């Protein structure tokens, strides 16, 4: 899961691959803006065929949190 | 460029109640709203059914002694939000929409400042209500939009309230009348800096915005509504305008759902902010790239441009695949809140979707001017509403000065702030704080914000937005803010650009500076940038996605 999310962040938002670690902060560290976050959420929903809850999504502070949340929806 | 301008015929109305009554009498069975319920199923509500809800809720609120009260709503976009909104606009009270994303203490402060006697809130705001209820002593009722049962005497259920309203006589609510020129909606605006100010709008302001707005820019039979309802841009320009047009408005719960809701609801128009139009654009381009169709798109654009010159429009056919991603019916994207990048506007126009820009400010309810498909221009923000006069205060040699407007949509003032009101409202003229000029054919061009102006030590005024717009057209630059460079005496002597670049590549500041200087080469020397700083992360944004300067 982490590898796939990393790939998405790198390809969709042009983030440096080396910076994408499980502990990297989505907004602070990787500098993802609110609209970009919406963009990536749309891609994740299409890619994994899942429905993300906006409030739960906002609670995901790190890349690891995001992966964990997506995993929980796929179970 | 200005083409043949169309002024649309719009039915006159003098109150929001009259507007809704007209819709019910003439198109009562038309679908007014479609929204998803908790199970994700679409629920359709006709104009007649919607009006009944406002009558029931209005009667219930009146029975609680709230028919003339200030009533706030702190909740996310929903069908219920619109029900509360229209119920209050039809009453003799005042509606106070509040951004649920504000910090708890700010929400509490605004409830108290607005002297609200009742507060509608969603499940997401329950903690705020419970933790701060004692700090809002003026509030008699907190009405839980998602609560099934009443919790206490002060915290009651919307559902129960509505059930009660069904049993009540509507005569008292229906007889409520307020002066059309008195306060009807109190909208708190933070602006990009500074403390919140309560903008006082009258019912006449709101009705004028709808009536004259529709005369200059058309909507259609089905729209998708997604921007925050607590902003007048969505609450007036979309919700009220669509209501008067008898549109079916489909409610999209979140920006992230826009792409799938476009496909699902197949709207003809949508209101967004430019940053989101950029997302839609980049998603199209990324698909085009992945599918190796870049050359095909370029060729398609050349062909359709040539055909349009001889009056043949094949854009929808040639770009059918792109149109399908938007549901197939989309013909208009209205962009507000910030300028549109002309390149993006041109792209959407090339594929057959009009990207419409305008100029609005909450203090003008909010619409001042807007483009339309009939006179689409990406260089201007369109023609003024017919009810407005405009002029440029103290123009410089280029005709640029502060934009001032006067007319039916101009606010009454700032709530309980006569001094601040006096600074911006003089002899009926509202000083917008925005700078620009008026073209020969009476269209408005915005050059920047008054507070952003840089005055160089050679006396030259710089509108950083003008330079940022050009720099923003450099492919690899994602965000930019132009600032002044100060000498040891604190004087602003030259310009620097702070840029954010979203890329795997590393860019040297020298190379970026050279590219920027090339882009600005035709401007006078004093408008050129002499230093570049590359920042590691995007700029902070306001809730309306504007960069915090």
Can you summarize this structure?
With 75 residues, chain A is mostly helical. Chain A has four helices and no strands.
Overview of this protein structure:
The complex is a heterodimer of chains A (75) and B (549). Chain A has 4 helices and no strands. Chain A has helices at residues 2-13, 34-48, 54-59, 63-74. Chain A has a single domain (2-74), classed as Non-ribosomal Peptide Synthetase Peptidyl Carrier Protein, Chain A. In chain A, α1 (2-13) packs across α2. By secondary structure, chain A is mostly helical. Chain A is globular, with a radius of gyration of 11 Å. Chain B has a 9-stranded mixed sheet with strand order 2-1-11-10-12-13-14-15-16, with helices on both faces. A 5-stranded parallel sheet of chain B has the order 4-3-5-6-7. Helices cover 34% and strands 24% of the residues of chain B. Chain B folds into 3 domains: 16-27 and 46-211, Rossmann fold; 255-449, ANL, N-terminal domain (Rossmann fold, 3-Layer(aba) Sandwich); 453-535, ANL, C-terminal domain (GMP Synthetase, Chain A, domain 3), CATH 3.30.300.30. The longest helix of chain B has 17 residues, at 47-63. By secondary structure, chain B is α/β, with parallel strands linked by helices. In chain B, a hairpin with a 2-residue loop joins β20 and β21 (429-438). Chains A and B meet through α1, α2 and α3 of A and α10 and α11 of B.
